[in-house]
Amino acid sequence: MKRTFYSRIGTFYCTVTILALAAVWFPVFTHEFKLAAVIINALISIFMIALPFGIRYVIDGEMLKIYTFCFHSDVRIESITRLERSRTWISSPAASLKRLAIYASGGNVFIVSPRHQEEFIAMLNGIAGKEITYIP
């Protein structure tokens, strides 16, 4: 069974994005018009806006696949040792500060922020065949 969970997009991310876009575009409107600057700023803006919409977490069989705008990671669900709520600022494929740290064997940690966290956790537990330790 394959199920896709999209990333939650938090208010903090939206605020930072709006401020960054304002900082990028402000010089274009206050200085002499240059087509190259408009094109570069448009590309940066498209990337910044599209980035959080490309983050998704796919549970496919016994694998959790974490996709970002242009990268992906695979985690065997049976290797997950614990889940923990997190509000870390560490860079990760999570567009919200309401995050979930996934600890896997081998010391790997993946920070995600699925929109439907409770359903996501329940599905991981069901596939793992065991109760994954969850620390709220």
- Give the helices and strands as they follow along the chain: EHHEEEEEEHE
Overall pLDDT level: 89
Cα-to-Cα separation, first versus last residue: 27 Å
Largest sheet: 4 strands, antiparallel
Low-confidence stretches: none
Which structural class fits the helix and strand makeup? alpha+beta
The count of helical stretches stands at 3
Report the count of strand segments: 8
Overall morphology: elongated
- Tell me the helix content: 25-40%
> Which strands sit side by side, in order, in the main sheet?
1-2-3-4
Radius of gyration over C-alpha positions, nearest whole angstrom = 18 Å
Amount of beta strand: 25-35%
For the structure shown, list the relevant keywords.
136 residues; four-stranded mixed β-sheet; alpha+beta; four-stranded antiparallel β-sheet
Structural summary, described in words:
This protein has 136 residues and is α+β, with helices and mostly antiparallel strands. The strands form two sheets. It has a four-stranded antiparallel sheet with strand order 1-2-3-4, with helices on one face. It has a four-stranded mixed sheet with strand order 7-6-5-8, covered by helices on one side. A hairpin with a 4-residue loop joins strand 3 and strand 4.
Structure at a glance:
With 136 residues, this protein is α+β, with helices and mostly antiparallel strands. The protein is 35% helix and 30% strand.
Task: Summarize the topology.
Elements: E1 2-6, H1 11-30, H2 35-50, E2 56-60, E3 63-67, E4 72-76, E5 80-86, E6 99-104, E7 108-112, H3 117-128, E8 133-135
Parallel strand pairs: 5-8
Antiparallel strand pairs: 1-2, 2-3, 3-4, 5-6, 6-7
